[in-house]
């Protein structure tokens, strides 16, 4: 029996940035996990990692946390690392067919092979004006990024994926 399918929708600045089908792995009412192949066309080379066709993302979302964590593996199963999006808490549609998250521009990369931890897009976050429009959300976003970085630096990062 195959796992149920769900659409993941990432919203940025009020518009759908990307939407893709995923396989629902678990949903305990707070934490959801889905699996999906790399959904964008072609290769995206960030300099510190390449996302490419064949990569598989196991994505973790929470209804009560301001981030999502995506475990990234190559097509042969090699762990590349974890890409973390700072988002508003995830919202699952009432019919259970769509999971929506609003991207708040901040990101964190945790490399599996070098242990490198990179804070990303802090300039985009500042330019977004979120702090002026929604100071509470901006504060939650910064706290979420700090929490993820702290967990990564203290070796408590992957325990998130079990909660």
UniProtKB/TrEMBL annotation:
SUPFAM superfamilies: FomD-like. Coiled coil: none annotated. Residues 48-155 form the DUF402 domain. It comes from the Bacteria. InterPro entries: DUF402, FomD-like_sf, Ntdp-like. Keywords: Hydrolase. This is DUF402 domain-containing protein. It comes from Streptomyces xantholiticus.
């Amino acid at each position: 029996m195959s796992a149920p399918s769900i659409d993941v929708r990432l919203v940025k600045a009020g518009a759908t940035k990307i939407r893709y089908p995923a396989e629902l792995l678990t949903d305990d009412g707070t934490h959801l996990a889905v699996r999906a192949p790399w959904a964008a066309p072609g290769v995206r080379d960030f300099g510190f990692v390449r996302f490419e066709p064949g990569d598989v993302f196991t994505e973790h979302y929470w209804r009560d946390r301001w981030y999502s964590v995506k475990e990234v593996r190559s097509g042969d199963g090699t762990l590349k690392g974890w890409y973390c999006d700072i988002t508003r808490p995830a919202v699952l549609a009432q019919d259970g067919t769509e999971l929506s998250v609003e991207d708040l521009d901040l990101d964190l990369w945790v490399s599996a092979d070098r242990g490198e931890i990179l804070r990303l897009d802090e300039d985009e976050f500042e330019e977004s004006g979120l702090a002026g429009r929604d100071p509470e959300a901006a504060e939650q976003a910064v706290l979420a990024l700090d929490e993820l970085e702290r967990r990564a630096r203290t070796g408590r990062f992957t325990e998130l994926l079990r909660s």
